[in-house]
Write a structure and sequence with these properties.
158 residues, single chain, 4 helices
């Protein structure tokens, strides 16, 4: 698996969820990438989603968090540490999802899902520590697909 510079090891018993986006303002389209790994960076699962009609990059980033949470929830992961390189998403969730942007409904949904986890946290990371999630988002943008992978990592992120 590709090693990311600045990757932060999750605390014992937690899995790491990285989320990121690819966004095209001219077409109002975006895509999300989410990857779950354990403390040794071993692949657990990934999700990509292509979206149309996104108002801005912030909305795409909020969607990335939501899709990552859905992936973790679907896989039964109940102890996670989330990393995003988009400061606004991190700070909004640290403030219990309070926002005055167009993303309010997305943050509300994230907060509802958030409550299902036994232990959950979110931290800001640099782009280098988030490159696998970004590569996943780019694949979703190019393919215009939405899908999940479990247990077996995709060849391009190995």
């Amino acid at each position: 698996m590709k090693k990311e510079e600045g990757w932060k090891k999750p605390p014992d018993g937690k899995l790491l969820l990285n989320v990121d986006v690819s966004y095209k303002a001219e077409s109002s389209t975006g895509s999300t990438g989410a990857i779950i790994r354990d403390s040794t960076q071993s692949f657990i699962g990934a999700r990509i989603c292509y979206r149309e009609n996104l108002a801005d990059a912030a909305m795409a980033e909020a969607n990335a968090l939501k899709e990552g949470l859905v992936l973790a929830q679907m896989m039964g992961c109940n102890r996670i540490m989330i990393q995003s390189d988009f400061f606004e998403v991190v700070e909004t969730m640290k403030l219990d999802g309070v926002s005055v942007t167009l993303c309010v409904p997305i943050y509300d949904e994230c907060c509802m899902i958030w409550q299902d986890f036994i232990s959950i946290s979110i931290d800001h990371c640099n782009q280098e520590a988030n490159c696998v999630a970004h590569e996943l988002a780019k694949v979703a943008m190019q393919s215009k697909l939405s899908c999940n992978w479990v247990n077996e990592p995709l060849s391009f992120i190995l």
